[in-house]
Description:
Chain A is 75% helix and 0% strand. Chain A has 171 residues and is mainly alpha-helical. Chain A is globular and about 55 Å long.
Amino acid sequence: MEWIFFLAFGLVAAVAAVAMVLQRSPIYSALYLILALFAQAGLYILLGAELIAAVHIIVYAGAIMVLFLFVIMLLDLGRTDRSPARVKPVGVIVGTVLAGLLLAELAVGVGPQIVLGPRGAYDPEVLRTVGNTRAVGRILFREYLIPFELTSLILLTAMVGAMVLAKRKVE
Amino acid sequence: MVPLWAYLLLSAFLFMVGVVGVATRRNALIIFMAIELMLNAVNLTFVAFSRFLHSLDGQVFVFFVMTVAAAEVAVGLAIIIALFRTAETVNVDEVRLLKG
Lengths: 171, 100
């Protein structure tokens, strides 16, 4: 049963990712990426990470991809980007071969013989009684409190930076 | 139960698709989306290891990766908008001058 869901979500994610890279129009690429992100949220549910799945949908599909679509429509690329992508066939062949090598190396590295270290305290039984969100929240706000507060600095910097960069210069 | 290597293999494949996207596409927006795909592949690895090592640290790290990804997208899209204003294109091959 779990295999069926894994294969379904994984297949959708993989096919949507490949389609995203192959699409010519950025709009279709963004829509395929959203499909891949939804499939990945399903994988998170399978892995028992319900909070991550919800945050993933809200942040990625809800915020980041809306920002992408907003910018794509704002830029009005229809006029300028009509020309076909000038990708040299040699580059595509070399890139695909190198990518295949990379995938093969990764597959050898992560093969079924992988050895895991000592297990932590949060096995599925504990998570079922405590609840995934409560357990993650406890760790986030106790052990990782200072890094968590520091991420707010990253967000503030990014917000100010984005406004300064995208602001129209006053003549 | 689905073993760990299946998740790692899927995540490696998604990461590789992202690498190919960055290397072959010339549209800055699609390059950005491919970078997002790579970040998501890494997130999948984090969650998979978190599940199989019975530890929640990986899920906390996914939060940090998401924060950095959101900040990166905001700044990156602002740069693309500024680029489009000055160069009238988002094709990275046509943007060769730092100034002018």
